[in-house]
Structure formats: structure tokens, C-alpha cells
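Backbone-to-sequence.
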């Protein structure tokens, strides 16, 4: 499964969401600019949407549907 190109894309998308989330939490935790935290969380929502669509596509293709 790790050699499947779509799986690699899904894994990268999930890692991207995690990275954006950690950056937003880190900025919020150190008392950074609230606008930056808000911007990062908006980016996270968009990236998470893309990741969920890719996961659903992966599952659909793997099931043969």
C-alpha cells in the first residue's frame, strides 16, 4: 500500500494538515499575533477539507467502486 501513489499523496496531505495545526497552536501558545493564528487555522480548515476528499477518493478506489 505504501507504494500506491494516491496513498503517498494522502499521507502528505495529512502531514500538511498536522504541520499547519502545530504551527497555529505554537503561534497561539507563545502569544503571537492573533491574526496569524486565525490565518493558520483557516489554512488548516482548507487543507483538512482537501485531505478528507483525498482519503475518501483513496477508499473508493481501493474498494473497487
Amino acid at each position: 500500500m505504501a507504494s500506491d501513489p494516491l496513498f503517498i499523496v494522502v499521507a502528505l496531505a495529512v502531514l500538511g494538515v498536522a504541520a499547519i495545526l502545530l504551527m497555529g497552536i505554537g503561534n497561539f501558545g507563545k502569544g503571537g499575533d492573533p491574526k496569524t493564528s486565525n490565518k493558520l487555522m483557516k489554512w488548516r480548515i482548507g487543507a483538512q477539507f482537501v485531505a478528507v476528499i483525498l482519503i475518501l477518493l483513496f477508499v473508493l478506489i481501493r474498494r473497487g467502486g
